[in-house]
Structure to design on (202 residues):
């Protein structure tokens, strides 16, 4: 993640952005707007994630970061400043491969980080608390380091389709106006399997 962040932050700077790193490890590139009018001082967020699950192909997550970067690069090449600022965010560990939890980076960015997650351990016994600290972040600041939503123009993300709908109908792109929230729970069932063929229903 450190290597990926370093490479992408170099590209961000080449596209005229200043870069910083959030406490959880989110990489944030900022392209300043002209700061005038009703949108002056506000920010449009374009983002996705740089990590990915195994065998997810080369477009998952990184496509959204690269498309956002390419858009800003175009503005920078033409010397244009939009009326609002743009932040390109590469979220850290969205897929939860290391700590078995999803949306780590975006939950911290959204101000919805749950401090109980700091006790989670990776397979080597390293806690999230220790990993954040080793990465240069402040674990105690995660809950309060959320992005203030009052100055946002909006949020936009390009992502590959993760189902067959567009492919089935032969459309190259779909535009959605909302996104599903996702919750995961672990459920245990107690009991014993019935012997096949001897199960009676009442
Ligand atoms: Zn993804």
């Amino acid at each position: 993640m450190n290597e990926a962040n370093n490479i992408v932050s170099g590209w961000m700077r080449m596209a005229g952005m200043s870069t910083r790193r959030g406490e959880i490890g989110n990489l944030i590139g900022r392209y300043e707007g002209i700061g005038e009018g009703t949108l002056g001082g506000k920010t449009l967020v374009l983002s996705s994630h740089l990590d990915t699950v195994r065998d997810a192909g080369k477009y998952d997550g990184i496509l959204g970061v690269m498309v956002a970067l390419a858009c800003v690069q175009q503005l920078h090449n033409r010397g244009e400043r939009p009326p609002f600022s743009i932040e390109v965010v590469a979220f850290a560990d969205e897929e939860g491969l290391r700590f078995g939890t999803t949306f780590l980076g975006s939950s911290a960015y959204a101000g919805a980080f749950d401090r109980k997650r700091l006790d989670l351990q990776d397979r080597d016994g390293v806690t999230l608390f220790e990993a954040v600290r080793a990465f240069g972040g402040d674990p105690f600041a995660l809950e309060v380091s959320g992005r203030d939503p009052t100055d946002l123009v909006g949020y936009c993300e390009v992502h590959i389709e993760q189902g067959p709908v567009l492919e089935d109908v032969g459309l190259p792109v779909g535009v959605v106006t909302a996104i599903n929230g996702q919750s995961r729970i672990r459920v245990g069932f107690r009991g014993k399997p019935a012997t096949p063929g001897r199960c009676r229903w009442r």
Summary: The chain has five helices and five strands. The chain has a mean pLDDT of 90. The first strand starts at residue 18 and ends at 21.
